[in-house]
Design goal:
This protein has 2 domains: 222 residues, Rossmann fold (3-Layer(aba) Sandwich); 98 residues, Oxidized Rhodanese, domain 1, CATH 3.40.250. The chain is 30% helix and 19% strand. The strands form 4 sheets. Strands 5-4-6-9-10-11 form a 6-stranded mixed beta sheet, with helices on both faces. Strands 12-16-15-13-14 form a 5-stranded parallel beta sheet, sandwiched between helices. The protein has a 3-stranded antiparallel beta sheet with strand order 1-2-3, with no helix packed on it. The chain starts with a strand and ends in a 13-residue tail after the last helix. The structure holds flavin mononucleotide.
Length: 366
């Protein structure tokens, strides 16, 4: 929608205020990115509930982010000292100003933030270093300290955090979280007080019956907490408790679940195709009879080869109800047009504990 931009809001053709949502992504992984997939679900819902709002995407890896090198650092110190940047410094300062304007023009922000080496990807730190300037994101007074210049503009932010190994409540042997702690703290420091966090669970643990269980983390979230692979972390606004957050991500279609006895009946009748959504090493140790092996990252490339009939009755499963993999694979299959996908949420743990037969061995179809 064409509109007149003002700081933090835009006007539609009738002069009504509409919001601008800017999705800032720090993941370079494109279609394979979990944080982008969750953001996309979030945006689908957002579009439905805010049809007039403008939505823009900023992939921080697209080459448009200004650098913050010697000239920019020099300009910052010049401004701190009360001077005006000149020459190369002025060019760098103007670039920082333009970057800040792009960021601050949005009154709704959505960030995709993978964990990289316990913290955030360096491109997002670069973004922070560029926009965090006196007179832009903050003011500072030697006596009273910082002021937070994005406060009070009705701004809201949602952050999608992803990680593959670390996750609450794991101990330090699985890494540390300087990702949400650092980024959440920075966001709150800008003055944005309405911050929602969405965090994925790490990959599934093995079932306790598998030898590899000792190597893998326990479930990061309580079982059955959500059908979505993500769960909400409490808001971390440092300056104020979070008012009602933007709409939480949710699927339009929840994958139907299927019970153990239905799986048994389907297997006996030969009417279902089982899909084990765990990594191949787990599949090789133990899987349900006749199951294929397909992990979420491979769905797009391998589904048509492994599952040529889009109307076949497909049942995904992984370890147990705490495991998100089966839901992720099911959701991706549904997105590709598979019409009859269900999830055996209790997973192989339930199957084995019920004394039912399992198989071992590497997947045959490659
Ligand atoms: C360079 C790099 C470093 C990573 N470091 C960690 C880490 O320290 N801890 C962790 O749990 N996961 C780590 N991961 C895994 C990612 O956080 C995980 O795959 C996440 O889903 C990536 O988000 P994305 O899919 O949106 O790109 C790392 C991944 C990459 C590429």
């Amino acid at each position: 929608m064409a509109g007149t931009e003002v700081r933090g809001a835009a006007l539609d053709s009738k002069g009504m205020t509409v919001s601008t949502l800017l999705h800032i992504s720090a993941s370079p992984r494109g279609a394979a990115s979990e944080s982008l997939q969750i953001a996309s679900t979030f945006l689908e819902t957002y579009r439905e509930t805010h049809p007039d709002d403008q939505i823009a995407m900023w992939d921080l890896w697209d080459g448009t982010l200004a650098e913050f090198g010697p000239a920019a650092a020099g300009a910052k110190m010049t401004v701190f000292a009360g001077g005006t940047p000149e020459g190369e410094q002025a060019t760098a300062w103007n670039a920082a100003q333009a970057t800040f304007e792009r960021f601050a023009a949005a009154d709704r922000l959505l960030f995709s933030v993978p964990m990289w080496n316990a913290s955030i990807p360096y491109i997002l730190k670069q973004f922070i270093d560029v926009v965090s300037q006196p007179g832009m994101v903050f003011g500072v007074d030697p006596v009273t300290g910082y002021t937070h210049l994005l406060a009070g503009g009705n701004r809201r932010a949602a952050v999608v955090y992803t990680s593959a190994v670390w996750g609450p409540p794991l101990g330090p042997q699985f890494g540390r979280d300087f990702q949400s702690t650092y980024f959440g703290d920075w966001l709150a420091w800008t003055g944005i007080s309405d911050i929602s966090e969405i965090a994925t669970t790490p990959p599934c643990p093995a079932t306790p019956t598998r030898p590899a269980a000792r190597r893998m983390p326990p479930p990061a979230t309580p079982p059955r907490r959500s059908e979505h692979p993500a769960h909400h972390r409490p808001a971390t606004g440092r300056t104020a408790p979070a008012p009602p957050p933007p709409p939480p991500p949710r699927r339009h279609r929840m994958t139907q679940t299927i019970s153990r006895s239905e799986v048994q009946a389907g297997l006996d009748a030969g009417t279902i195709t089982l899909v084990d959504a765990l990594p191949e090493s787990y599949y090789a140790q133990q899987h349900l009879p006749g199951a294929l092996n397909l992990v979420a990252d491979d769905v797009e490339n391998r589904a048509s080869q492994l599952l040529p009939n889009k109307d076949a009755a497909i049942v995904t499963y992984c370890s147990n109800p705490a495991c998100a993999n089966s839901g992720q694979v099911a959701a991706k299959l549904e997105k590709l047009g598979y019409t009859n996908v269900r999830k055996y949420a209790d997973g192989i743990q339930d199957w084995v504990e019920a004394g039912l037969p399992a198989q071992s061995g590497a997947p045959t179809a490659r």
